[in-house]
Amino acid sequence: MIYLDNSATTRVLPEAADAAYRAMTEQFYNPASAYQPAVATEKEVETARARLAEALSCTSSELIYTSGGTESNNMAFFGTLKATRGKRRVLTTHSEHPSVFEVARSLKSKSDTEVIFLGLNPDGTVKLTDLENALTPDTTFVSIMHVNNEVGAVNDLTAISSLIKSRAPSALFHSDGVQAFCKLPFSRLPVDLYSISAHKFHAPKGVGALYVKNGVRFAGGQIGGGQEKNLRSGTVNVPGVLGLDAALSVYREKQESWIANMRACKLRLWQHLSQLPDVFVNGPASEEGAAHILNVSFPGVRGEVLVNALSAKGICVSTGSACSTHQKGQNRILAAMGVPGANAEGALRFSFCPFNTIEEMDATAEVLSEQVTFLRRFQRR
Length: 381
Fold this sequence. Notes:
Elements: E1 2-3, H1 14-25, H2 36-55, E2 63-66, H3 69-81, E3 88-93, H4 98-107, E4 113-118, H5 128-134, E5 141-143, H6 157-167, E6 172-176, E7 193-197, E8 208-212, H7 227-230, H8 238-273, E9 280-282, E10 293-297, H9 303-312, E11 315-316, H10 332-336, H11 341-345, E12 347-351, H12 358-375
Parallel strand pairs: 1-11, 3-4, 3-5, 5-6, 6-7
Antiparallel strand pairs: 2-8, 7-8, 9-10, 10-12
């Protein structure tokens, strides 16, 4: 099998699986308990938190463990807005993951909340002129993703932050970093809140984190036992946390070579696909954007048909976000980028991991060429 849907989820690293297994079988204690083995488990969790904080150039006290990207994004919105009095003004984009976009859309019906959706450039990045024009002194919250999960566009968080500080200094800036964390060089981020999800970088599913900058007024999420400094109640997912920590340690050691390999695979696949007639890249040029995502349109063949045809040949790709797979209708991200209807219908997302090979790209391109040529014979005229 050739797996090219790593933006949906990744294969767990052996080191991460081993760490999670040990946590389930040896360190199975509840870290909130008072006896010595539980205290030792709590120390392991806090050591892992410190290493994650180091990767994000923040402090341990600024990190909240969650169940993943969706919870982190939801908590960023609701935890911030619950702590805000009076009328709220929210800015976001049409390119966001459903865990941001649907939250923002639901807020539009609230009488005390104004929501503005910003436009996109043809490469999938936010239009900074739209952002600049929309920012007002009473803006409460801005949420703009770091790396787009469907086309790999990388938003300039520094430029966005600068605009926010100059035009809406009291606004808080959140970024969904699920597709960016580990896939971009580690650095201090110019944001107030930042979401990550472990299963996007070869750690187990069901764990993630939300960075909340010290000093931010934040009401938190789940209420109950008071875990995570009373900001996210619920028994700590120790296997997930320690699995995340193990995967992060490996990624930090090998990040440069792993990113280079993903970029090489992306360029090799596009080198082959660009030889086919009527094939187009959606989003940034193949040599730009995130190293691990390539979105390509094959007009004349529906993307879903190609997904099934490739699956029958042992090649796994997608038409976009796994969270939107079963939703019918127009792809809102490609539409907001101005991608024509036929191109949007024939779009595939290829997403790579460090373990993909050039040989897999050659094989994928060969199968795609055969299938696209064959299926286009049956297109409607």
